[in-house]
Known about the structure:
single chain; binds manganese (II) ion; Alpha-Beta Plaits; Aminopeptidase; 2 domains; alpha/beta; binds glyoxylic acid; 15 strands; nine-stranded mixed sheet; four-stranded antiparallel sheet; 14 helices; elongated
Amino acid sequence: MTEKTCESALAVDSERLWNSLREVSAFGATPGGGLDRLALGDHDRAARDHLVAAARERGWAVAVDPVGNVFVTRQGTEPDLPPVLIGSHLDSQPLGGRYDGTYGVHAGLEVLRALDDAGVATRRSLVLADWTNEEGSRFSPSMLGSAVYSGAHDLDAALARTDTSGATLGGELARIGYAGAWGGVPRRLHRALEVHIEQGPVLEAEGVDIGVVTGVYGIRWYDVSVRGEGGHSGTTPMALRRDALVAAGAVVRAVSELADRLSPELRATTGEIVVSPNSRNSIPGSVRLALDVRHPEDAVLDRAERALEELTADVARATGTEVTIEPVLSQPPTVFDPRAVAGVRAVAERLGLSNRDLVSGAGHDSVHLARVTPTAMIFIPCVGGISHHESEDIRHQWAVDGANALLHAALDAAQESED
Ligand code: GLV
Ligand code: MN
Ligand code: MN
């Protein structure tokens, strides 16, 4: 057997991968079979501790940076060369699924374990990362850990972000024991690879094993504030009201109709609504809405932004309320490095896995990594395309195929000599 054939026979341990996914699902498990593991809460701490314990068991170095990103390093034979980074996130949506992010971290852990067990020495070190606050459900914006790591977001501003109870990200990092430092954290990378569930229906519907991700939709977030006038629900005649929730309802509907007006590929969502005073027999005096708008082209997102400004002004005029809209995130569309993407495609072919190109509508930490190193993503199918929901699910074989694709893509990159 040549060395090459030996390496392509290398595979992850499918049972160990599945067990490790099952184990980590206990941290923040919901009665509905999903996860409530918000960033830097106690369940996130438990999932992080579980990862760190697995790393220490193998003697791998663990580093935590100042925004709480965790890095596990399996050292290569030439540790001065920039390493290959594999990773994803352990935090979840408030009623999220077990695999969004967690699958990528635990597939990465299994890749390191499989290389160890097979005694494979890589030239470059392999670094497994768990990125802080990918989801953005607790601290806005999303992908904050990788944004700070890549220089796209200021560290102090990130640490000062607050959740709805007023807790700061920095305070929560200290509380759970994950406020670190830059020492030991790899800053120059050779390649970044992330395996993730598709979170959409294409791969399963087409019976395709692997999605080769060529890029990610642009994402814009907005906070909308509606100010009307509160009052008594029984005594204020309808004609005299300036009900902030009625105005907000008109905004929600108009947002949901934006795609019809602008582009079928546009995704426009009102995901949060906070009503004040939120009492059945009081007229709502103010409302806050959180909007999420996505498209693969910046020009269409610009048009959507202008449409949002117009529609909020129209609603304000029609309802006699004050409506303001404030951008809170503008993430341009990402195109991944063609060579890194070709590397993933070649691995899928070599392993006999059917594959197709996909553009991701979901945001990922890889978007930030793509600014600092050639980056690629591997998707596996998920049942019914459902994600950000407790019923999110994957099949054992899909998990194994994705982890094997990650294993070989990471190994190829780790053996490369040139920068
Ligand atoms: C994160 O999961 C996102 O796509 O917003
Ligand atoms: Mn994710
Ligand atoms: Mn997510």
